[in-house]
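INFO batch 0412 | record 1 of 1 | parsing
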Amino acid sequence: MIDIPVYDIQGNQVDTLKVDENLLGGTVKHGLLKQAYVRIHANQRQGTAATKNRARTEGSTKKLYKQKHTGNARRGSIRTNIMKGGGRAHGKVPHSWRQDMPTKMRRLANRNAVLAKAVDSEIKIIDSLATFDKPSTKAFSNFLAALKIDRSVLFALASTLSPAAKSAANLDQVTITRIDQINVFDLLNHRYLLADKASFQSWIDRAAQQLAPDTASDQNTAQGTDQKESV
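INFO prediction complete | emitting tokens
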């Protein structure tokens, strides 16, 4: 079990949240994290970059001058890539950079990224955000200072329309997201993960529910294999 400290609004530890590391993958799987990170990064590319080749460049296709007896190099279309204003050789064309990954791997990577943050003590859990009854950037900035958060932080909570979320909206080092939308890319791009206890516990419960059908399916598959071998 991993013990994640829970703090109050003044930055004092008031509780400890125990999380089973097996639920998060057991150990930090660096290869899986990199594959998932690269996939999300690649899927964000539009793939619309394009340059004009000879076929797309304006200009006559007429031979500039006759082949022989001019003393000049042989020359064809003015749209050749070695002429000024000509087409681009081996230029970029619209291309899809999308990568796919099985659902089980994606979910495991997201959980494993949380494990990596927990191992490095980079998860900050707050017992309650009820004190933020109205938006206040100054109050939230003081709250981060009390938690000793001096680097980039991913603020994950149930709703991005809450007063606490609006309080953090004007801080450059804070990125706001919903707790059910955290992923490898956002987690690894920020030093800290900040969440309230209720939201983080709901994410843990949801991860356990997602893992339960996979475990049952693997057990059924193993039982079916054993029956075939016995037959």
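INFO post-check: The mean pLDDT is 89.
INFO record closed
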